[in-house]
User: Fold this.
Amino acid sequence: MSPTANADIFGPGREALALARAAFGGRGFFVSARALPADFVRAPYTFGEPEAARRDRLAALTVVNHPIVPTPVGEPQGLDTIAFFAAGRSAFPAAHIVVDLELLGHKLGQLCLSFGADAIVGMIVDQRALRLGERAGSNELTRDEAAQLLRASGFEPCEGLPEGRGP
Assistant:
């Protein structure tokens, strides 16, 4: 086996998740919105970009008291997406790192919560129709489902973001 075969690909995720839990006292947040709120800052990333370019891209963000939403340029790619979330948490340990469920979906969004995200944004409804037929791709969640996504990553679910929400 090569030396990199033993590399711990989950190490950055564990570190990022610990930072997220510490920054917000173990609370994870869900925000109901049809579109991303105007004060949320998109942090674009490109599939396969070198780590140095990713660090530079994060360093160039001027984030003052605004939640950060990692946003793929093109289709989101699993490992690349969670690596960017972990890098975002490391770069901004006290900022809200937000999963846009409309872009990433529930499954990848859940992984991102385990790799440094502390909040999700998407359509939160009282009751949703079954995901069948033309609704199969629906990303709507009930409050209970949103809370379960957060609990599965060890967060105590809270609706909305608190005042003074940035770094």
Observations:
- The chain has a mean pLDDT of 83.
- The chain has five helices and eight strands.
- The beta strands are 27-32, 41-46, 68-73, 98-100, 119-122, 124-125, 141-142, 156-159.
